[in-house]
Design goal:
Number of domains: 2
CATH class of the largest domain: Alpha Beta
Helix content: 25-40%
CATH architecture of the largest domain: Alpha-Beta Complex
Largest sheet: 6 strands, mixed
Number of helices: 10
CATH superfamily of the largest domain: Creatinase/methionine aminopeptidase superfamily
Shape: globular
Distance between the termini: 46 Å
């Protein structure tokens, strides 16, 4: 993966030169990982930025907190690693200023991802400097995944499948939601560990599955993105699992959702869930090179309309090192699909705040259609009977 990161940086430098950018100041975690091959595990933003500075004709430079620099140096291929400290004359502001110099030229940033504290520093220290948004340069590069990236995403899919199997197995009447969430975490962690070694770059990859489990049951299934609670499952409850913030490996993120029913389900619930499944399947069947992202959403919407439902959900989103990349499978997105693009494709309906139909998978666009990255039965699942 580090060799690929080095190659991507060389391509990025060529694109910066073509765009007339003298230095790119990269602060977004997934972009730094994409180019430099490392990331942190703190997952908390409180004013301690890490930077990757890329100039078209010079070796890139990392600026990172001193306390994390040892791990960063071991993970990245970038040789130039500068450090900053929380107090004194070596704070990040001073290190960044020294590195950029008095006349940095045209500066490129990912505008939407620039931390407020860094944006404020530029406004105060370089008020006359125009920051040029280079998000589209990296976005275009990240649209098409390499075979190696797709391979990692398939491993993430296998991990997600093990998690979903554990989720289904844990469901039963009177079981609290959090017990199913714990089963998901344990199964995913053990599956991820099987793909890792304790040597080289692999040694810095944690197998631990974490983040709060998105799980909704009973009448709460229409509350999208609710977290697992102490609520006990009841007979007839629908139970929805979303692994979109958990199904990831080596920083590559998938979308993966399933719904189950405890022992029984009503005819109405079955109709809603089947409509979501059929809409998702229609969208995936429509994926192939040469069609627009919007046309995939329209294929799903046709199913919803035929069943008498309306949905405000997008049909899908591009995935990779970020939860959301470009393009999106929704009305108005005219991006033409190409082989190597990867998407989370969803079926989603909410009815009157009391019922929900949900399913989600991740796919890669092939030369002839789409190939699944996630695998689990795509059907109505009733557990405990």
């Amino acid at each position: 993966m580090l060799d690929q990161a080095r190659q991507r940086t060389a391509e990025f430098q060529a694109r910066l030169k073509e765009a007339g950018i003298d230095v790119a100041v990269i602060t977004e975690e997934s972009s730094i990982a994409y180019l430099a091959g490392f990331w942190g595990y703190l997952s908390v933003e409180f004013g301690r930025p890490t930077f990757l500075l890329v100039r078209p004709d010079d070796a890139p430079l990392v600026i990172t907190p001193l306390m994390e620099s040892e791990m960063v140096s071991a993970m990245t291929w970038v040789e130039n690693v500068a450090t900053w400290e929380d107090a004194g004359e070596n704070r990040w502001e001073q290190v960044l200023a020294r590195t950029l110099g008095a006349a940095p030229g045209r500066i490129g940033v990912e505008a939407a991802a620039l931390p407020a504290i860094v944006r404020a520093w530029f406004d105060e220290e370089m008020p006359d400097t125009v920051l040029h948004d280079i998000s589209s340069i990296l976005g275009e590069m990240r649209m098409i995944k390499s075979p190696e990236e797709v391979s990692v995403m398939r491993e993430a899919g296998a991990i997600a499948g093990a998690m979903m199997e554990a989720a289904e197995t844990a469901l039963a009447e009177d079981v609290p939601e959090y017990e199913a969430a714990l089963a998901v975490i344990a199964a995913g962690t053990r599956k991820a560990a099987g793909f890792l070694t304790a040597k080289g770059w692999d040694a810095f990859i944690s197998p631990m599955i974490h983040n709060l489990q998105i799980m909704q049951s009973g009448r709460d299934t229409s509350m999208v993105h609710r977290r697992a609670s102490v609520k006990r499952l009841e007979r007839g409850d629908p139970v929805y699992f979303c692994f979109c913030n958990m199904a990831q490996f080596k920083l590559y993120k998938l979308g993966f959702d399933r719904m189950f029913f405890i022992e029984e389900l009503s005819e109405e619930a079955a109709r809603v869930q089947q409509a979501a499944i059929d809409a998702q399947q229609a969208a995936i069947a429509a994926i192939r090179p040469g069609v627009t992202a919007a046309s995939i959403a329209e294929a799903a919407d046709e199913v919803y309309r035929a069943r008498g439902y309306e949905t405000g959900y997008r049909t899908g989103r591009s995935i990779g090192m970020s939860y959301l990349e470009a393009p999106e499978l929704k009305a108005g997105d005219k991006t033409v699909l190409r082989p190597g693009m990867t998407f989370a494709v969803d079926g989603g309906i909410s009815v009157d705040g009391r019922l929900g139909g949900r399913i989600g998978d991740s796919v890669v666009v092939t030369e002839t259609g789409a190939d699944y990255l996630t695998h689990y039965p795509r059907e109505i699942r009733v557990v405990g009977r």
